[in-house]
């Protein structure tokens, strides 16, 4: 079972996807679910009442009512209201090598804000002044409960699950100065989804991640190659700031970005990017020049 967020009557609602069926949680007629409007609501409820996970699974399995199909819904970001969007740079050795950087003792962190969130099958618009547009396929952590000064040994308890992200980057803006905000934080530059899976349903030790540019695979790795693993990232961050339910952490991208090419072939108008992570699904976006 996977989780999605979809648009209904201009509102974001959370739903479960089982095979081809998308079932909004509010259709399951279980009183305890009345307060669950978004995936973040579900994460908070599940933390307080773990038995709700089994109740939800049984309700979805036994559901015989109306359901939606993936080709008839508009997806929203699978988490649309995080308090924090934290990103990790240089977290695969192959990517460090291709960008001619050196491996550091601590992770490289930067942040995006909610204006950069975007969704599956939605367009990523970029300003016509941006000439060096790049992609970055990433596994994204979804925080499950409030974490502060958490040890690495217990950090996994604070992870709710995972989704897919594409960290679009305007390299010309990113490289102007030492701070990355402008190059990373443009409108729509952080699509996530369409699916989120609980950590128990994802094989972190062996899951392929790849990115197709149009019909060509340009990034391919395994998430077990991450230098700083999710438990380390949760523990390390929580020594300095409080992580909240629904916060998301982009964990870094593998080799194959355009920035690493000897003769960069930057993204252009109308190209299609698809990030696939084994055990989660695929996230697809088209890029277009933004016209007023």
**Gap between N and C termini, in Å?**
41 Å
SSE string: EEEHHEHEEEEEEEHHEEEHEEE
Number of strands: 17
**If strands are numbered along the chain, what order do they take across the biggest sheet?**
5-4-15-9-10-12-6
Q: Quick check: average pLDDT?
A: 96
Q: Number of helical segments?
A: 6
Instruction: Identify the CATH class of the largest domain.
Output: Alpha Beta
Strand coverage percent: 25-35%
Principal-axis shape equals: globular
Describe this structure in words.
By secondary structure, the chain is an alpha+beta fold. The protein folds into two domains: 71 residues, no CATH class; 206 residues, Fumarylacetoacetase-like, C-terminal domain (Fumarylacetoacetate hydrolase, domain 2), CATH 3.90.850.10. Helix content is 15%, strand content 33%. It is built from six helices and 17 strands. The protein has a seven-stranded mixed sheet. A hairpin with a 3-residue loop joins strand 16 and strand 17. The longest helix has 11 residues. The protein is globular.
Topology:
Elements: E1 2-8, E2 11-18, E3 21-24, H1 39-48, H2 52-62, E4 85-89, H3 93-98, E5 108-112, E6 117-118, E7 123-127, E8 133-134, E9 137-143, E10 159-166, E11 169-170, H4 171-174, H5 181-184, E12 190-198, E13 208-213, E14 216-222, H6 230-238, E15 248-250, E16 272-277, E17 281-290
Parallel strand pairs: 4-15, 6-12, 7-17
Antiparallel strand pairs: 1-2, 2-3, 4-5, 8-11, 9-10, 9-15, 10-12, 13-14, 13-16, 16-17
